[in-house]
Design goal:
The chain is mainly α and 186 residues long. The chain contains 7 helices and 2 strands, in the order E-E-H-H-H-H-H-H-H. A hairpin with a 6-residue loop joins strand 1 and strand 2. The longest helix has 59 residues.
Length: 186
């Protein structure tokens, strides 16, 4: 049993222990502090990783939205595409004019590029159907729009597929089903 001289006491208290006991206590206390510190550091690391991931995802959503809107503006700002759009609505007889054949091909190519962007994941399909579907479906069903075109799926398969999907999308909207923008990723 240690003697009174072998014990060391805390100042202003009656707690006295041997040097070996204080060494063990300090090792336990140091380990406890290290574990708590490591836990806090780990929690902070995971919190920062989650926050960075959320920020990156928000930036990607913004870039995807900006890109999609740029494509939408391109459709209206390009004079050739804009001219085709003005004539598509009522399947204007001007669409049958040979001078419109190249502009119609440009429009079809635009929609096919859009389909490739959807397949690559740059534009969400439902967003594209919402923004571009009406015009694609109107062109697909237009007799005058088809005039002068090699109107076969082997040439315009992506366009045909998109127009058919747009027809279904628009039919659902006509049935009174509200458009769920959350599902669309907007």
């Amino acid at each position: 049993m240690p003697t009174q001289l072998d014990q060391f006491c805390l100042p202003l208290s009656a707690i006295c222990r041997s040097m070996a006991d204080w060494k063990d206590f300090s090792a336990i206390a140091g380990t406890a502090v290290a574990v708590v510190t490591a836990g806090v550091a780990l929690w902070k690391t995971f919190t920062e990783i989650r926050k960075n991931r959320e920020q990156r995802e928000a930036e990607l959503r913004l870039k995807r939205t900006e890109f999609t809107l740029a494509q939408h503006r391109r459709l209206f700002d390009d004079p050739v595409l804009s001219k085709v759009l003005r004539l598509i609505d009522g399947d204007s007889s001007a669409l049958a004019d040979p001078s419109m054949w190249d502009p119609k091909r440009k429009y079809l190519t635009f929609i096919e590029e859009l389909c490739l962007l959807i397949k690559a994941g740059y534009i969400k399909k439902n967003v594209a159907l919402y923004l571009f579907g009406y015009y694609a479906e109107a062109a697909f069903g237009g007799k005058n729009f088809r005039t002068g075109m090699a109107w076969e799926a082997r040439y315009w398969g992506l366009f045909f597929g998109f127009a058919e999907e747009a027809r279904e999308f628009l039919r659902q909207a006509a049935d009174g089903k509200p458009i769920n923008f959350e599902e669309m990723g907007i």
